[in-house]
Design goal:
The complex is a heterodimer of chains A (96) and B (170).
Chain A (H helix, E strand, L loop, with lengths): L1 H5 L3 E7 L1 H11 L3 E4 L4 E2 L2 E2 L6 E6 L2 E8 L3 E8 L1 H9 L8
Antiparallel strand pairs in A: 1-7, 2-5, 3-4, 5-6, 6-7
Chain B lengths: L1 H9 L10 E5 L7 H15 L3 E6 L1 H10 L9 E3 H9 L7 E6 L2 H13 L3 E6 L4 H7 L5 E4 L7 H10 L8
The chains are: A alpha+beta (96), B alpha/beta (170).
């Protein structure tokens, strides 16, 4: 997962539980997408309990990033490519 | 780090035909019982003829190598992220995965394993919040739950029951 740490990211939530990150995405982003555990993003894999949601706002994605000793972080990374990829996925965006 | 890299390289050796394999996924090593139980489990499984790999973060790997310098119990180690990538991408198919969890992250790792791998999954939940964490693990797995922090005896007893070693004195 070192690749993500080399990217320009912002931390929205730190050392949270997986559920806290999931709830935050559901509550704060009208546009969010459900992905499977192991979903590949930025050369990394999402670790988590399903359902897993990735939020989208503008050109940025908001996704959970889990570390064994530090819990789950909700990260924001600007990536029009990843936003486009999520929008093209089969699963429809869930509306609040 | 050279010696650790050398050991990781060993994992790339092909397994013997028909040889059963197990992958132990360790969490943060902050709870003392984890390393002792991992050494015990790795040793017992190897004794049963199962090829065991222990995966963890760099601290877990160093703890393992310092605790077991002759590699009597843990013969193969690998980085946790690499192990997860291999499972997710279907590059490895262990017969057994044992996931250790004493925090929310540990449950998340186990849930991911369950989702991407058909392997038998045994989830060892320990630490002060073991019972509460166990409620999060609603996916299909064998759960061993014990509020163990420093003393591994009760946890070992439950592991022995699950793996059929209960009658053994070793």
């Amino acid at each position: 997962m070192g690749c993500i740490e080399e990217l320009k990211y912002e931390t929205v939530l730190s050392q949270a539980s997986f559920k806290e990150c999931r709830d935050y995405v559901k509550e704060h982003f009208t546009e969010h997408y459900e992905v499977e555990p192991g979903y590949r993003i930025f050369e990394s894999y999402i670790i988590g309990l399903p359902p897993i949601f990735i939020g989208v706002e503008g050109n940025a994605v908001f996704f959970p990033y889990t570390k064994p000793c530090h819990g789950t972080f909700l990260l924001r990374i600007e990536s029009p490519e990843e936003v486009e990829r999520l929008r093209k996925m089969k699963k429809k965006p869930k509306k609040r | 780090m050279g010696w650790v890299q050398g050991v990781v390289k060993m994992e790339q050796e092909s397994t013997k035909q028909g040889e059963k394999t197990a992958l132990l996924l360790l969490g943060c090593p902050e709870v003392p019982v984890q390393m002792g139980i991992a050494l015990y489990l790795a040793g017992r499984l190897e004794k049963d003829g199962i090829r065991v790999t222990v995966a963890g973060n760099p601290s877990v790997i160093q703890l393992s190598r310092v605790s077991d310098p002759e590699q009597h119990y843990v013969k193969r180690v690998m980085n946790l992220e690499k192990a997860m990538a291999d499972l997710i991408e279907g590059r490895v198919h262990p017969d057994l995965v044992v996931a250790f969890a004493h925090n929310d992250a540990g449950i998340s790792y186990a849930a991911t394993v369950r989702h991407v791998s058909p392997s038998r999954l045994c989830l060892i939940i320990f630490g002060r919040e073991a019972e509460e964490l166990a409620k999060l693990a609603e996916f299909d797995c064998e759960k061993i739950v014990e509020r163990a922090v420093h003393n591994p005896s009760q946890l070992k007893r439950k592991i022995d029951e699950v793996f059929g070693w209960a009658a053994s004195r070793s």
